[in-house]
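User: Predict the complex with guanine.
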Amino acid sequence: MTAQLIDGNALSRTLRADVAARAAALKARGVTPGLAVVLVGENPASQVYVRNKVKACEDNGLHSLLEKYPADLSEAELLARVDALNEDPAIHGILVQLPLPPHIDAQKVIEAISPEKDVDGFHVASAGALMTGAPGFWPCTPYGCMKMLESIGYELRGKHAVVIGRSNIVGKPMALMLLAQSATVTICHSATADLGAMTRQADVIVAAVGKRNVLTADMVKPGAVVIDVGMNRNDEGKLCGDVDFDGVKEVAGWITPVPGGVGPMTITMLLVNTLEAAERIAH
Ligand code: GUN
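Assistant: Here is the predicted structure with guanine placed in the model:
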């Protein structure tokens, strides 16, 4: 193995300790940072994510409110709950777990969240803020990837970053965050003609498509930094990313593992955003 690991668990511990200290300071001033997590339906993966988010709040001194609703909750009822949470002074961040059942327009629900409480960073106002450099919440997963790059002291200015994936949640905001640090950014996706030709030029590769082995050793320039956002299962049911870790770790300079890489960072940045939402109110 030539690559050094970027340990998302270790970095999360450091960042969460800072969150806990700042949460305690706010609490001493009478403000307990509060996150509302809304889950509609019984999606098993969503149930695990939601449980982990609530537990992370409890472990770090944040108040959490978990609201669970049956899959047949109407869109109007959900919008009414979001409105009530917007008005609730004990709640500084609102997260509606996705996916929502098909009869609910997810974007409409996201737009109903007050941008000041949009700790997921999915509201159009948050996306616009990221695009223009205005203050606003950044989506947690790409924000966590940026913290991982920062943790190794990586200087992005003038580097070529290739993002594989163009989702609103990861790919597009990731590209904007890298651009804001003066990287030259290429976004690749399912219609990219020759993915390897792009990634072989990259100093930094972020893989975020949700498909195993999208990035293999022959597609990586020696010494490149490889960030794996994927969360997939292999044939044995083992958690794995989008990157062929065993192959790529022999070529890359730095690599994030799955599990223990980007995953814990996503929840950590949710805590950071919630804390900042509370700090903005308290100041
Ligand atoms: N579903 C999968 N990832 C996420 C996330 O980061 N936030 C929300 N709200 N739903 C998700």
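The chain has a mean pLDDT of 97.
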